[in-house]
Specification:
The chain is an alpha/beta fold and 333 residues long. The protein has two domains: 245 residues, Aldolase class I (TIM Barrel); 68 residues, Putative flavin oxidoreducatase, domain 2 (Non-ribosomal Peptide Synthetase Peptidyl Carrier Protein, Chain A). It contains 14 helices and eleven strands. An eight-stranded parallel barrel has the order 3-4-6-7-8-9-10-11, surrounded by six helices. Strand 6, helix 4 and strand 7 form a beta-alpha-beta unit. Helix 4 packs parallel to helix 6, helix 9 crosses helix 10 and helix 11 packs antiparallel against helix 12. It is globular, with a radius of gyration of 20 Å. The mean pLDDT is 96.
Amino acid sequence: MVKIGEVEVGEFPLLLAPMEDVSDPPFRALCKENGADLMFTEFISSEGLIRDAAKSVQKLDFFEYERPLGIQIFGNEIESMRQAAAITEEANPDIIDINYGCPVKKVACKGAGAGILQDIPKMVAMTREIVQRVDKPVTVKTRLGWDESTKYIVEVAERLQDVGIKAISIHGRTRKQMYKGEADWSLIEAVKNNPRMHIPVFGNGDVDSPQKALEMKNRYGVDGIMIGRASIGYPWIFKEIKHFMATGEMLASPSLLERVNACRRHFEMAVEWKGERLGINETRRHYTNYFKGITNFKEYRTQLVTADYAVDVYRILEEIEKEFADIEMVHPY
């Protein structure tokens, strides 16, 4: 059993990555139903939390059925991150996660997210302060380094462990790579094989099928796998990976009806959670994967991503259900 501090997360946990405008409560509900062992919130601005900004505070909300759950925070000021960690702890998650991996310019170029990989001493100092401020287990999500010449993750992971983190998730790319090229898991393996490491090491990057998940488990010896982009619009990937690892067989792809029903539920929850306007906008990124593999779907996809009212989305989903009722669905990978 893998444990983060005293939090049990499964024999070989599958983690839902924290993704802005994606891993919100509606989507997390679907991922939990389909076997995600540990999920993380969208990342939350430390400055937003300490200023009580509504958007940041709302991201602290979660449901009991989501446990174990980690709330992720980001920022570039140590004192703000200490205060934000304390506020986060009051929301009573199971884990507090620090984002040292976001590559987006508006985050990284301000010294937050992956930006802190340019200042490892500050990264270590910030982590130490957060660990000392809270009682909850603290974890970190990060990347291999800032660029090809600064891939110090083996040393960095050890130093973060030494100041008290209870697990680390590593995306196998540098910040400079963003999401381009292939993820390099060899350095994730090097972290796991460091004889001084004793905390769980989770791998992240390019796991987009059950076969790939099993390969990464067997080849690199990680304690679990974090899945991000491959889950967007396809929460079934967690269930499919678990079944394949247990049996060596692939589950059948979700039927058209299952996909429509999941998409409809996702949309309903999103509108209820964020209101019609945001619910519509933030569900759009999922439609391509919900219905990936359907030929002659372009017209419906265009309608879905341009619909401005909930009533129109529901109508389009009904039309899709009727139009493609007899189609045999295939996996999106």
